[in-house]
Amino acid sequence: MKTLNKFKIFKKNVLLRVDLNVPIVNGKISDFSRIISIEPTIKNLSNNYNKIFLLSHLGRPNGENNKKLSLKIIKKYFEKNYKNNIFFSNKPFGNEIEIIKKKMKNGDICILENIRFYKEEEDNDKSFSKKISKHYDVYVNDAFSCSHRNHSSIVGIPKYLPSVAGYTLLNEIKHLEKLSKKPKKPITAIIGGAKISTKLVLINNIIKKCNNIIIGGAMANTFLLCAGFEVGKSLIEKNLISTAKKILDKADKKNINIILPIDVVCAKNINHKDKINIYKINKIPKNQTILDIGPKTIKKIKSSLLNSKTIIWNGPLGVFEKKPFDKGTISIAEIFKSNLHNKKIFSIAGGGDTVAAINKLKAKKYFNYVSTSGGAFLEWLEGKELPGILSLKKNNLN
Questions:
Q1: N or C: which end of the chain has fewer CB within 10 A?
Q2: What was the pLDDT predicted at 33?
Q3: Are residues 75 and 135 in the same domain?
Q4: Which DSSP string corresponds to 276-307?
Q5: Model confidence over 104-133: pLDDT tens digits?
Q6: Is the pLDDT at 325 greater than 80, yes or no?
């Protein structure tokens, strides 16, 4: 796989695939972390006198031109934060892009309109990829977070252009590979979220590597039920009770410690947050709903984490989006901030709610790496080869 470290790109028209799918609240960008992360790659390309064309998606326009999902909002950020001339093109191909190329000086940046305005992007249309690629000299992928997609801008275009990995993508791979190449033991994984079905492949993959697996969130309810506990009106997946049992049996045979909640925060439903109770797991009333982990569970998790050398965290441990049921997830982030940062522990975290909890406490610096890559992060942990990475490895165009 060619990288910017080893493959110098000089005075070229560079198509740079980035992830500018940023949250927008009331017409303003609320989180700039993805934009900031690509600065080293842009700086490298600009310093080497390339013309840089940023290619990204924003939201889910479903192949239609949706003004609310235009990347023009990104242009404002670049105009404010970059000294380079900033251009904008409504299309990544055709006469418009050729006219802009002539206006641009070496080192300048052009933001291309939302690539998902074209249905052909998600269809990975061959002729569409070809049509785009003929306007550029080199393709750079700096969007690890999109590299699990079989889309034109991820796997189609690299078939027609010399293709290189950018710094953001390489940085993510570097940290994730530490998990697959002899990580220090004991290894503890914290797996949360609503459904076992969304984390089944992940659990079956990490069970081969971990010493401890902490299971929280609503997915823990199904495990508690198959272990013989009453879970009241809590969310469960009845069709996966036998699967949960197999996972527990498999862990037992491999001498892997599965840590389930020993106490939980309950209410009659999510809207009864003024009437919450904490119950031991063998004392949950039939009219109650489990909405978060309890204080004794937090203490047990803390003990496990303090005795670990490698920690992976993916998913919330309660209904994170609703206070006060975010307390369990926030408490875990607090453990990293207050108790683990000065110990020789390799820690990596990812997933929307997990990252939100970490950012809420400003605890990002206490982790070795915090991934904002969502689905790509999860698929890597599941042991899958990402299509975008594979296309870079296969590329042999010079």
A1: C
A2: 84
A3: yes
A4: -EEEETT---TT-EEEEE-HHHHHHHHHHHHT
A5: 999 999 999 999 999 999 999 999 999 999
A6: yes
Neighbours of 377 (CB within 10 A): 25
Same domain, 157 and 258: no
What pLDDT sits at residue 318?
94
pTM of the predicted structure, to 2 decimals: 0.86
Is there a single domain that holds both residue 186 and residue 93? Answer: no
**pLDDT attached to residue 361:** 84
Q: Show which residues are catalytic.
A: 34, 195, 352, 375
Asked if pLDDT for residue 328 goes beyond 80, the answer is yes
For the chain, what's the residue count? 398
Q: Are residues 36 and 142 in the same domain?
A: yes
Specify if 229 maps to a domain: yes
Write out the residue range of the structural domain in which residue 77 sits: 13-172+386-394
Any long-range contacts for 251-257 (C-beta under 8 Å, 24+ apart)?
251/207, 251/213, 254/207, 256/207, 256/210, 256/211, 256/212, 256/213, 257/211, 257/212, 257/213, 257/304
In a 3-state reduction of DSSP, which class is residue 350?
Answer: strand
Q: What percent of the chain has pLDDT over 90?
A: 76
- Amino acid letter for position 56: S
Q: Report the run of H or E that residue 371 belongs to, with start and end.
A: strand 369-371
